[in-house]
Amino acid sequence: MKRATRDLCLFSLAALIIMLVLLFTLDSANLRVVTGVYMWIGLALSWNIIGGYTGYLSFGHAAFFGIGAYTTAILVTVAGWPFPLAVLTGGVAAGVLAALIGGPTLRLAGAYFAIGTWAVALCMLQLANILDITGGAYGISLPSLYSDTVFYLLMFALAWLVFFFTWHYIEHGSFGRKLEALRENELAAEMLGINTNRQKLLAFIVSAVFPGLIGGVYAGWIVFIEPNAVFGSNINDPMILMTILGGAGTVMGPVIAAVVLYLLNRILWINWSADTAYLIFLGFLTCVVVLYAPNGLVGTFKAWLANRRRSLPDTQDDEEAS
Questions:
Q1: What is the β-pairing status of strands 224-225 and 140-141?
Q2: If you placed Cys at 44, which of 112, 178, 242, 317 could pair as Cys (CB 3.0 to 4.6 Å)?
Q3: Domain residue extents for the chain
């Protein structure tokens, strides 16, 4: 545990130094790109809590991002709330939504759970399109509240918060051990005395609150939101793919994949306006990883490293015998 705390401190310090260096060296356009990187790190790590560590593949996490964005936008523009309070309320709203739908959907498993969560996101999309308070298909425009620098810092803080929670409470905490036991064999976990229904629901709520907070900050950063932009597959699909490609159930996998894939997306778009090329590459990479590295890049590397360490004593014994 002491080593885990030390590693967390070292990584946090390195991330802080990199963040500050980029803050003072990048121009406004590139600063917005890095802000997007932080956003996707936070989203991928959030999905990883329920999809990677718990083993329940949610296809509806865009619902929580969208509810956070719309709650924040409505409270700021209609009710005149301060932006920070509106963002926090958006996170709470996402957690409440997860608590309401988690009870029935988490009783499902496999493809049934995935379809159930996808249906929830689709319902939220349709509601946002028809309700007057959301502006319907026309969306909501927000006032320009802060500079790009402020939103850069806010997105970094949220990404670090999700990373800290994942590292401290899941990867190196009892909560994570319960989730992993549940993922491997839910019946065996129950026989060990783990309240699996409670742990699943708690993981689902936590994995929803973070996207709700990120969605709220995103709404203030972009200053205009509409239903497809915050409830659509453009939000839902990348966070799933980033987690799976990087390594579901690992801490660094979603982080690495989010950085690489989002920067690749921006490079292709800025130079060639080629979203199609990015989607083709992403589809090809997904096929390769599923076929040859089903545990993701980081998961595969960790398995290779563990096998290598186990084989070292045998190699040393052979050398001594000879």
A1: antiparallel
A2: 242
A3: 2-321
Query: What average pLDDT does the chain have?
Result: 89
Query: Taking the CA atoms of the chain, what radius of gyration do you get in angstroms?
Result: 21
Helix (H, G, I), strand (E, B) or coil at 141: strand
Instruction: Measure CA 157 to chain center.
Output: 14
Query: Rounded to two decimals, what is the model's pTM?
Result: 0.91
Distances (CA, A) of 222 to 24, 56, 217, 274, 307: 22, 31, 9, 22, 46
Q: Determine what percent of the chain falls in helix, strand and coil, rounding each to the nearest 5.
A: 80, 0, 15
Compute the distance between CA of residue 104 and CA of residue 273 in angstroms, rounded to an integer: 42
Q: Which helix (H) or strand (E) segment is 224 a member of?
A: strand 224-225
Q: SS3 string of 181-207?
A: HHHHCHHHHHHCCCCHHHHHHHHHHHH
Read off the tokens for 318.
């052979």
Pairwise CA distance, residues 213 & 231, whole Å:
15
Q: How far is CA 206 from the centre of its chain?
A: 11
> Which residue bears the tokens 């917005």?
32
What pLDDT digit, counting tens, does each position of 313-322 carry?
Answer: 655 555 454 4
What digits encode the pLDDT tens for the residues 285-313?
778 777 777 778 787 777 777 777 777 66
Tell me the CATH number for domain 2-321: 1.10.3470
For residues 213 and 88, the answer to whether their CB atoms sit within 8 Å is yes
* The two three-digit tokens of residue 309, written as one number: 């360490």
Would you give the distance in Å from CA 305 to the centre of its chain? 26
